[in-house]
């Protein structure tokens, strides 16, 4: 660590880290242990019955060809091989990864910047109520708005033309569409993650920042040495949430198709839209087997990423 | 906060950062204004001049959406369902998260991860098995059934989200309570839970937002119009446009009806989060 | 704790899977016990407040007054089959639904849960002595509701696709329609020369772009030709001259700049709206377009439809792309008898006329007066040969249609690939697709 680490932060952070739980021994700790099952079990049972058990059924379905009713035909791993050979699945999966990592980087950078700026901003409570707002708006509205903004003679291109750009880009042309969609997702998500991170940052005792200021730390140093370590757990949670939400994204893309009876262009599909389509395409026999297989793959990936993130975050937290 | 360096840093931030934040904020406000303005315009004007303010206030949009979409009873259903879900979610998830994050049980880490993985389960991957099991139990086409389903599917997020908050609370208070002879459950309900208040409120808010707009489960599990929720009413209203005339004015009015309560809730609870912060972090 | 949980979870999952398996096999559902015929449940594709709903609602009242059969109706909207689907293998939640063939085929025919309604054709129509349902519904409409040799959908309303335009902008077109595509192309060229966009298309909706290739193929080789090519698992049919020529027709439209500016980079309904305000000449679309665009169309817009000009198709009538809304009875419906009576009742002239007036659409009886905006559609359907939208390809080869055909067709209609490349790639990718599909 370089010199500018404020003493206060250095002193507090390690002591509060993970002392919870393990520290106490004796009768009190035993009492506490007794709370574990009654506290966890109700939530867990509900979760297991309504999500885990159906997932087991889903894994079972993924080994069959099934139209949603009628007989199930055992096909083994065929759904999986078919899916991986399908160029559309590869495109969809690529889009998902692009959103997950590319979109994620931008979203988190923006969220951190906003969090830091909002901390000392006059009128912050107003600002922060407002940045969350896009989350409340149904995806459908945002898709309509995005159309008006980005289409060939939309607001953006009108603005570009008025400053002398005769041939502004075709934002909604097939090859650009997914990037424009990502922009929408980033806009919606930034407010969401900023809000969560802010809630954590709010709990950081102000005196740490004051000590920091006394030590002459600049904004970046305060962020690096106070904000980041003290909201690390919550940032970890946000990373996991982002991973999962990115993997599940499809509503906005579906809404971008604009017509109730048609699917959007395959170049904008994500893995979860792929799964959705195999069951809810406007025409065609539903392929529950494929949808289930795609869900299983998604889940496996989520599982790996979640474990990875948690491991990564834990190690980082111990570092300083 | 009175030293010169803070002031200097603050000034730099204000000069560079503030415009950025306010631009972002302004964009969001304009979107809200745009929705509200559109909800009072005629369909023709929305499409031909999307950015203009309404020439006259067409309140009939709201009337049409409210009547044709059956928004009244749907709003009541949504209100009760969403409120009930948020309450049940917090009551179940808060103790679970506390236990998982602070009681030091050996299985806690794995169990937390297991909950987290549940977040990745898409609704369309599980609805059929759920339907097959819930139908014979009379839980289909039944708001109680949907409530149970919403609460259960909220668990992964709620538990995962709250464990983070409980984990970052100072341990000293718990230890002090133990020294004072408080029982562990007293410690939880009276000391730790109030401390996690900002987290709980944020959770309630996110939970409400999630379910206020939830369409998929509601679509599959609710059959009668009398039981339909607000998103279903909006969806039904929207689908009418496919064959019977694009009523964008009515659509935006319907959207405003769906969105405004949430905006209100956010403004109200958003302030509470900040209060929770000041109370929670002590001096 | 962990292991116990895992075991418990596994057990629950297994129970779920078992329940599922049982249910899937038809299991303990009781099967189709016949009801008492005094009531029936109807789930509708229409929502409360729609004109179609108002018409049907009035008809239901009449029906109950006349027969004493109570109809419990739920106005479910377009997702009606999605809601019905989970109940189809047990006791269906509705005895009667309505929807179009593509949806019925995919959700019900594929699982054997749609009843054959051929018998209803022999039902007498109440109040019209001597006439049966089969007598009043033209055979060519019935054909649009058949699948696997069964009458799974009994059409009551028809929509047709064609080139829509404002009658005021093209006077005389109705009286003297172009005899074929080349003649019509002259009209388009004149428009282009006059500085107006001849055609409108929202190319971001893949199906709308696909209308063009589909209509050119069928317009040149007749109904069934597109289906035949799509059914070919080697893909080579796409390289035959007739299909390549259809692709060339589409490519030429894109190349010559006949589509309104921005058609390849806008969001539906931007270009459709341009058309409705007189900024483009023709829009290839279904007959719902009149109702759909009315709220924002230029005032006085005179909705006219030109059937897609033939490009040398064999046979007498011009092929007309069409779809129907029709009655569907689940195979295991409790009250299927009552449902059948209700269907027959609705084909009565009075009911059909009331529906046509309310919904401003075409109904499945030719002796009904139609709304002015639908006059051309009615004529096209009467004189031409209706065939299913996209020649039925989108429902019979749905996955291929979305994943293989759509991307290429969008590229073709937006001028991103040549006709030759399109045909070449379509052939190759289709062969690949079918190889994967096994």
Major sheet summary line of chain B = none
What is the share of helical residues of chain B? over 70%
Q: What is the strand tally of chain A? A: 2
Can you count the helices of chain B? 14
Query: CATH topology of the domain at 70-239 in chain B, what is it called?
Result: MetI-like fold
What's the CATH superfamily of chain A, by name? MetI-like
Q: How helical, in percent, are the residues of chain A?
A: over 70%
CATH A-level architecture of the domain at 70-239 in chain B: Orthogonal Bundle
Strand content of chain B: under 5%
Number of domains of chain A: 1
Secondary-structure-derived class of chain A = mainly alpha
Gyration radius of chain A, to the nearest Å?
24 Å
What is the number of beta strands of chain B? 0
* Mean pLDDT over the full residue set of chain A: 82
- C-alpha termini separation of chain B: 14 Å
Subcellular location (chain B): Cell membrane
Protein name (chain B): Multiple sugar transport system permease protein/N-acetylglucosamine transport system permease protein
Pfam family, one (chain B): BPD_transp_1
Domain ABC transmembrane type-1 (chain B): 75-269
Question: How are the SSEs ordered, and which strands pair?
Answer:
The complex is a heterotrimer of chains A (320), B (283) and C (438).
Chain A: H1 7-16, H2 27-61, E1 64-65, E2 73-74, H3 78-85, H4 87-119, H5 124-132, H6 139-150, H7 155-162, H8 174-201, H9 206-214, H10 219-230, H11 232-248, H12 251-256, H13 271-280, H14 288-318
Chain B: H1 4-39, H2 43-48, H3 60-68, H4 71-102, H5 108-118, H6 123-134, H7 143-167, H8 171-179, H9 184-195, H10 197-212, H11 216-221, H12 230-239, H13 241-244, H14 248-280
Helix pairs in contact in B: 1-14, 3-14, 4-5, 4-7, 4-10, 4-12, 5-7, 7-10, 8-9, 10-14, 12-14
Chain C: H1 2-24, E1 39-44, H2 51-67, E2 70-75, H3 80-84, E3 96-99, H4 101-107, H5 133-136, H6 139-143, E4 146-147, E5 150-151, E6 154-166, H7 181-193, E7 197-200, H8 206-221, H9 225-231, H10 241-255, H11 270-276, E8 280-286, H12 289-293, E9 303-306, E10 319-328, H13 336-346, H14 349-359, E11 362-363, H15 375-383, E12 385-388, H16 393-396, H17 398-413, H18 419-437
Parallel strand pairs in C: 1-2, 1-3, 7-8, 10-12
Antiparallel strand pairs in C: 3-10, 4-5, 6-8, 6-9, 6-10, 6-11
